[in-house]
Amino acid sequence: MARIIRAITKDGSARAFVTDARDTVERARKIHNTTPTTTAALGRTLIIASLAGSLLGEKDDCLTVNFKGDGVGGSVLVTSDWCGNVRGFIQNPEADLPLRPDGKLDVGGCIGKGSLYILRDVSGSNEPYVGISEIQTGEIGDDIAYYYATSEQIPTVCALGVLVDRDYSVKQAGGALVQLLPFADEEVVDILEKNASEMRSVTEILENGTLEDVLAQVFKGLEYDIFDEIQCGYVCPCARENTEKALIAIGEKELLDIINTEEEIEMTCRFCDAVYKYTKQDLIELLEKAKK
């Protein structure tokens, strides 16, 4: 399981959310059989969606982060609940790119240019809130910071990291989301900017330290309070009942066509790769339900 720690400076100038997400990203890698580059791209998106999702206020709220770029990885989509539990996929999990000249994974090339969409489906609202911004670098963290600054007018620092081991497994993963609050003290802003420029990568800190150490680096030189800690992970709520509803929803004619041409069909969840099989008799029973 992953942890998210949420904290705020004692003077109320800034808040920070940090997470250690190795288990979450590793599960996604195993499900989708990603390459090192797509592991990093999907992993970073899972991390920020988890952090942003933990900002939701009600248990039925959900958040979706969708990068629609022209890179080799294609679209990346991740959803999160209010506890930071996430699930997601990348359109082309088998895509890979050579390392950048600096030896790092080319996540920017994997994502490419395009648009970032963030949807918040909030309880009591008739329609979800949809925010859109242009992808800046494709490195995920930069794009999220730009989105918050331009679409929600919240000055934000976003540090995300996925360290892939030689056997392609996820060695370490984590992230930090830091946001200024209204009427932030300028001295606090200066300290946070200095910390951001000097801070080691989140994965480097987690390799030899703890999530609390990440938070201490973020708020170095500042007094702060931890106000919440939650556990989360890669969670897919799909169920056979949901696929049955989807089959019924396609209508009697389409169901009858399937019954007349197929002995058995399979429906696979895009998020967790779970397979739901339906025999001809199963489909006949669903057809009867569709007629009601």
Characteristics:
36% helix; Hsp33 domain; 10 helices; alpha+beta; 292 residues; five-stranded antiparallel beta sheet; globular; CBS domain Like
As a percent range, the share of helical residues equals 25-40%
Structural class: alpha+beta
Tally of helical runs? 10
Query: In the CATH hierarchy, what is the architecture of the largest domain at level 2?
Result: 3-Layer(bab) Sandwich
**Total strand segments:** 12
Low-confidence stretches at least 5 residues in length (pLDDT < 50)? none
Strand sequence of the main sheet, in spatial order?
Answer: 8-9-2-1-10
In this structure, how is the largest beta sheet organized?
5 strands, antiparallel
CATH C-level name of the largest domain: Alpha Beta
Distance linking N and C termini: 43 Å
- Overall mean pLDDT score? 96
CATH topology of the largest domain: Hsp33 domain
Secondary-structure element string: EEHHEEEHEEHEEHHHEHHEEH
Determine Rg (CA atoms, Å): 21 Å
Write out the CATH superfamily name of the largest domain: Hsp33 domain
Tally of discrete structural domains: 2
**What shape does the CA trace take?**
globular
Strand content: 25-35%
Topology:
Elements: E1 2-9, E2 14-20, H1 22-32, H2 36-53, E3 62-69, E4 76-81, E5 86-90, H3 107-111, E6 114-121, E7 129-134, H4 141-151, E8 156-164, E9 170-180, H5 186-198, H6 202-208, H7 211-218, E10 224-232, H8 240-249, H9 252-261, E11 264-268, E12 275-279, H10 280-291
Antiparallel strand pairs: 1-2, 1-10, 2-9, 3-4, 3-6, 4-5, 6-7, 8-9, 11-12
Helix pairs in contact: 1-2, 8-10, 9-10
